[in-house]
## 1
Amino acid sequence: MEQSDLQYVGAFRVPTGTSTETTFSYGGTALAFNPANNSLIMTGHDWHQRSAEISIPSPVNSSNVDLLPRASLIQGFADPLEGRLNQINPSDPNSKKIGGHLVYGGKLIISAYSFYDGAGTQNASHFVRPLSLSATGKVVGPIKLGNVEARWAAGYMTQIPSEWQVSFGGSALTGLAGVAIASASSVGPSAAVLDVGTLEGSAPSARSVLGYPSSNSLAALYGASDASGSNPYWNLASQVRGVVFPEGSRSVLFFGRHGTGTYCYGEGGERGQCYDPADSSKGTHAYPYRYQVWAYDANDLVDVKEGRKQRSAVQPYAVWSFSLPFEQNSAGRTIGGAAYDPATQRGFLSQQCVDTDCAPIIHVMKINK
């Protein structure tokens, strides 16, 4: 699968809200497709980490945001973890984030991560709950995924196509990449095979099949001395926030953003230590940014699972950038998440903070086999 196999269809707007607790503004992360309702589940405003379910209207291909249809709420905003988010790492005083949703077997799987795990103490990452966000008292978790590093697995998720599940030894992929602190996260796309059916048991089955420690980053595979230099593949300002494994293919596609400028750690903004008009915060910067796909061969990940390759030795077979409408509204080029509908071969991408009040826009792509 190559870039030409992703055919842009159109986009739609998300529902508006009446407060920060009932809006997708400054959110629109952790996308999941729900085939039962032909809908999307995702996280709202960053402050509250509440989830909601929205319809998928017929997308429109237009550069005028006012011409895009608006989705409606199917399930209103709720705390899907019922107050358990902090339990993934209770000793860490920093904020926690929902990293992913996955609809599987009539249940909702949720992953979560410590936003700034300076001490590297997170050791649990996943939860299981009913699909109904109004159901209470039935959340299971947080769950530790065996020997898989929690902050390498606590984000995006996708179902493994049925024809690949025996080879992978599981039903889903889960991962997280491009979060602080680099020494406690994967410095390149990461993935672990997850047997979803074992999550509620005493010994959840999971195995890491892709990931890069800070001492052996993805950039290093291409000759860079470390991940702080400028290169087309990965630096410490790169992020992955979604993964899609299309049926009928051998491609695993990771979606995110990559900083193409000089890497810098410090205050951003136009007058900061690190020139970054897209982000004035103190942290990692490499302005300007672009949307990016890292494409991997599923056979390479199976080789890691079987012990024939090391997970940090696997290279993507292709890396490409892509454009989306409304890029002029956000120089940060942040992707909130990705989801996939195998029945229609449609992929969904959340383009963050490009609509009114920093709301996301959802883009639809046809993924050709």
## 2
Amino acid sequence: MKTKWMAAVLALALVASCGAIMSYAQGPGGGPGWGHQHGPMGHMFADLNLTDAQKQQVKSIMEANKANMHGLMQQMMQNRLAMLQATSNGAYDQAKIQALATQKAQIEVQMTMQHEALQHQIYTQVLTPEQRTQLDEKHANEINRITQHLQKLQSGATPAPEE
């Protein structure tokens, strides 16, 4: 029963992440969640006014990398299942939990590397110089926002909640 449930959760996670990416590639109004949630990659490229050709390029890049991301998501779900099984009924085997946590971290590294490689590919192969400049400005603003937040945390001030 748990295996079927976890398979359903994995399928939903895959559909949700790929769906968000594909809805972004379709453009405004092209899929659910466009107004506020842009998916794993969409937020990076929001407000850049991609042309239809660029949207198709993004979609093609995402499709080409779908199998790899699916494999990583499956590994992550298997790890989560193993962690849940290892801690069922109040069980606590520190060595086993440490091994699973280490495995999870390694999978997250691979997922982050894949995500950043896709962003780089889109940045270098799809965006115009003007769009790159606009994206670079958004990136700099995000760096400044995080830096200010860290400074507040270091000074002991209570930061305002994120929007």
